[in-house]
Write a structure and sequence with these properties.
Layout: E1 3-6, H1 12-18, E2 30-34, E3 40-45, E4 54-57, H2 59-67, H3 72-80, H4 89-101, E5 105-111, E6 115-121, E7 127-133
Parallel strand pairs: 4-7
Antiparallel strand pairs: 1-2, 2-3, 5-6, 6-7
């Protein structure tokens, strides 16, 4: 039985295998089918439902993510394709309405038990901000 994984979920060896399936797009913009032996069988495109514009992340935020061996692109991709699996149904519905009505879209992702990553795309869709909060609750400016 095969399983689907985001690029960041693959082992380093699997990431190398995945590169042969991602010649035309960044590897992060695909998910990968992996068989029971751990071999990458194919890449499947992730189709964004939201324009993110320029990605903004402060150097301090990027450094914080690096401590967790994570990168902002992982969260921006999930935000753009509508993967809000870590949010409540009400928050997911609010994001779908925000996309439809041209309002800000806010995503939240856990990084272990001690951090939350917030991804925010304002109504104009010109940029997307990535923020890291090391405590429960939302960072300043996110509501």
């Amino acid at each position: 039985m095969a399983h689907l994984y985001y690029y960041h979920q693959l082992t380093l060896e699997q990431q190398v295998q995945a590169l042969k399936f991602s010649e035309e797009v960044r590897p992060e913009w695909q998910c990968y089918m992996v068989d029971f032996r751990g071999d990458v069988l194919r890449g499947l495109p992730l189709n964004p439902i939201l324009q993110t514009g320029t990605v903004r992340v402060a150097d301090s935020e990027r450094a914080q993510l690096a401590k967790f061996h994570r990168a902002e692109i992982e969260f921006v991709v999930r935000h753009a394709i509508g993967d809000w699996s870590e949010m409540s149904p009400d928050e997911c519905a609010a994001n779908h309405l925000a996309i439809e009505n041209g309002a800000p879209v806010i995503s939240r992702y856990a990084v272990g038990d001690i951090a939350q990553v917030y991804v925010v795309t304002p109504a104009d869709r010109l940029h997307t901000q990535v923020m890291v909060s090391l405590h429960a609750g939302s960072p300043r400016g996110v509501q």
